[in-house]
TrEMBL record:
Residues 7-164 form the Glycosyltransferase 2-like domain. InterPro entries: Glyco_trans_2-like (IPR001173), Nucleotide-diphossugar_trans (IPR029044). It comes from uncultured Dysgonomonas sp. It comes from the Bacteria. This is Glycosyltransferase 2-like domain-containing protein. The lineage of its organism: Bacteria, Pseudomonadati, Bacteroidota, Bacteroidia, Bacteroidales. Pfam families: Glycos_transf_2. GO terms for molecular function: hexosyltransferase activity.
């Protein structure tokens, strides 16, 4: 098997408390021909202490934003700085499993028509202890990843740099759903391959960038709308339907919440009295 350089991309903002574990998972890889591209988005924590410990490893290249620009700008810069033929994002609070790079390189090498490879991941707690498995993504026949509309976190994903270079690149304006935007763009340059192997540990914690469901859904809808415009598709057939589904989800959540039931039980007799008194 050929051994192309793999660029592991890390966009970091105030994740110094987790970054060492992410880097340790890279050092444990069975595939050794890699580089790490770290772009720091003006962190204010102990990230710089860790960077100083890495300065003697020429496989790790660190770049700094002169101010906080957000996820889209920073991830775009990560790809621009990469020199590998294959790239993949590792969030600084997550970790790779030991065979992640080897599994990805094998698929990309054997399948030149593939631009993007998805794999599977474990949901973990804040201590990176495995709690559950992600679902296996299945793209229905005669549908693309975009039109399949089964969107969720997809880790670990890797892509050919040559395919990325055929796109206009990650939008620097997106604050969330940046990976989703990347996947849609890559699908436009080649095939999508789903690897049924676990390669990644996804850490759930209170400070995670995707912790706010409302913000994540908002940015996902923006990305889908922009994808429709880029592909000359009718937005009413995709993001609008997803938005309507979100509204139904919010309504259901409110109606079945404890606070709503408690408020309803208190107000119901009051409203009945008001009706009797014609108030």
């Amino acid at each position: 098997m050929t051994t192309p350089l793999f660029s592991i991309l890390i966009a970091n903002y105030n994740n110094g408390c987790f970054l060492e574990e992410a880097l340790e998972s890279i050092y444990r890889q069975s595939y050794n021909n890699w580089e790490v591209i770290i772009v720091d988005d003006h962190s204010e924590d102990n990230s710089f202490t860790i960077y100083n410990q890495l300065k003697n490893d020429d496989r790790i290249k660190i770049y700094y934003n002169n101010e906080n620009h957000g996820a889209g700008f920073t991830k775009r810069k990560c790809v621009e700085m990469a020199t590998g033929k294959i790239c993949g994002f590792l969030d600084p609070d997550d970790a790779l499993l030991p065979n992640a790079l080897a599994d990805m390189v094998k698929i990309h090498t054997e399948k030149p028509e593939v631009s993007l490879v998805f794999s599977r991941f474990y949901f973990c707690n804040e201590n990176l202890e495995i709690k559950s498995e992600c679902r296996l993504l299945i793209i229905s026949e005669n549908k693309s990843y975009f039109t399949n509309r089964d969107y969720g976190p997809e880790h670990f994903a890797s892509f050919k740099k040559s395919c990325y270079d055929k796109t206009t690149g990650i939008s620097p304006n997106y604050q969330l759903a940046v990976d989703q935007d990347l996947y849609f763009r890559l699908e436009e340059t080649g095939d999508v391959y789903i690897l049924n192997k676990f390669t990644y540990k996804y850490r759930s914690h209170k400070n995670g960038i995707s912790a706010s469901i409302d913000k994540a859904i908002y940015w996902n809808l923006i990305v889908r709308h922009d994808t429709c415009l880029r592909r000359n598709l009718n937005p009413n057939n995709y993001p609008l339907l997803d938005f309507e589904g979100y509204i139904h989800y919010v309504r259901y959540t409110i109606y079945h919440s404890r606070s709503y039931r408690l408020g309803h039980s208190i107000l119901k007799p009051i409203n009945k009295i008001r009706q009797m008194l014609h108030i």
